[in-house]
Amino acid sequence: MDKNLKRMATMHRMQAKGLELFYKKGFYNTSIDDILKELSLSKGAFYYHFQSKEDFFISIIQNLIVRKVYSMLIEPIEGESDPLVAIEHCFENALSTAEHNEFDYGFVLGNFINEFNGRNDEISKYLRDIYKVWEVNLVTTLQKGKTDGFVPRHLDSEGVAAYLISSYMGIRMLMVEGNNKNLSYHFMQQTRQYLKSLAVTRLV
Amino acid sequence: MDKNLKRMATMHRMQAKGLELFYKKGFYNTSIDDILKELSLSKGAFYYHFQSKEDFFISIIQNLIVRKVYSMLIEPIEGESDPLVAIEHCFENALSTAEHNEFDYGFVLGNFINEFNGRNDEISKYLRDIYKVWEVNLVTTLQKGKTDGFVPRHLDSEGVAAYLISSYMGIRMLMVEGNNKNLSYHFMQQTRQYLKSLAVTRLV
DNA sequence: AAAAAAACCGACCAAGTGGTCGGTCAGCTA
DNA sequence: TAGCTGACCGACCACTTGGTCGGTTTTTTT
User: Fold this and answer.
1) CB-based contact A164:A73 (threshold 8 Å)
2) Is 1.10.10 the CATH classification of the domain at A1-50?
3) If I label B4, which of A84, A115, B34, B135 is the partner at 20 to 30 A Cα–Cα?
4) CATH number for the A53-199 domain, one of 1.10.287.380, 1.10.260.40, 3.40.50.620, 1.10.357.10?
5) Which own/partner pairs from A118-122 qualify as long-range (CB within 8 Å, at least 24 positions apart)?
């Protein structure tokens, strides 16, 4: 375990810098040398730790992206009693984090799903799986909210989950081009409006 | 005008195929040769008509993407009397088109904004401008709806516009990975729910 | 039909790309 | 001290990329 320390440290440095650059410039538009240059490491070091560029990115997904999505978007909702309130707070917190840290990696997921779609099936699958877990978690929480009396029984949980995910992916996409504060404020305002409309008896 | 016919035809063939491949595989991940091969044309033909790969893409934006966004998302809303109804119908129609034509280019905008962000400022600007026109148009239409009595006066037009755009961008992003029919059905259902909640007196 | 202009061809180039591989070297063990 | 091993180096390779350019073919003009 101790002797693995250096190994782990180097691998993690590469992964962190790799995610940063892949996120900033795109996977296909970032060369391994770009990453290595910033770390003052060599090609040899890279291929000593990782089999290929693809293998490298998969390790980034598993070690960084998955964990971030879980901690930012899945766990904050999981345990809460009132799903609609929990979702509101979760989104609020996630956007606030995104607003202040330029590279919080809170929702790189969207960008990468986009970039790899139709280009690399294996990576796409890994990314899609994360998204699916999020979706299932939302649906499950909403359903549980029904039995607990927080959510109207007629609510279409899957529809609401899909809509919430859509809007969140969309706003994160818009936020990359600045004016984040205003955007996220507007977004949360309307999300509240939407969530509240779900809580009352169906309109029409 | 007549003498330009062949020129126009060839340029358009290149642009159409270019958009198809750029959309499918990404701009940076598609070579000019990829496009030329499918058209049985040569490098010389390409550089006879376009100055560079970048110039080529800008011409695609101006000739294909702008027009599509206008005809699919801007014009259908512009003239209508009741904005909320117009938006609903517009989204419905846009998603239905997207659902059936795999490459309708209805909202490539999202993908490309994503890909070029932070990588090519000039192209980003062109794309952002299209998005801005859409946004302004939504806001204006909503405001006009207030004076016409279709929209409550307290409505935050800019917030609603941002939210609608977010959700639309998000759903189009999710739809690339299949299961479109189900997704777009859910999305429209929830969009209606949201729009209806706007029409009535503010909740809380 | 001849000349001029427009459209197109494809070999070529410099600059990268992902990936390989023989080698170096610090630190541990015996 | 000698040997071994994990971590790293960097020259090198085959290949792709955007872009150039001298030349050929097709179309239009005269």
Assistant:
1) no
2) yes
3) B34
4) 1.10.357.10
5) A118/B24, A118/B25, A118/B176, A119/A28, A119/B25, A119/B26, A119/B29, A120/A54, A122/A54, A122/A58
Q: Which two tokens stand for residue B106?
A: 């209805």
In 3D, which of B92, B77, B101, B204 has the Cα closest to residue B150? B77
CB spacing of A167 vs B162 below 8 angstroms: no
Smallest Cα–C1' distance to nucleotide C17: which residue has it? A31
For C5, nearest residue by CA–C1' is B3
The amino acid occupying position A11 is M
Say if CB A30 and CB A22 are below 8 A apart. Answer: yes
User: pLDDT 10s per residue in chain A (204 long)?
Assistant: 444 677 888 899 999 999 999 998 899 999 999 999 999 999 999 999 999 999 999 999 999 999 999 999 999 999 888 999 999 999 999 999 988 876 666 578 888 988 898 889 999 999 999 999 999 999 999 999 999 999 999 999 999 999 999 999 999 988 887 778 899 999 999 999 999 999 875 444
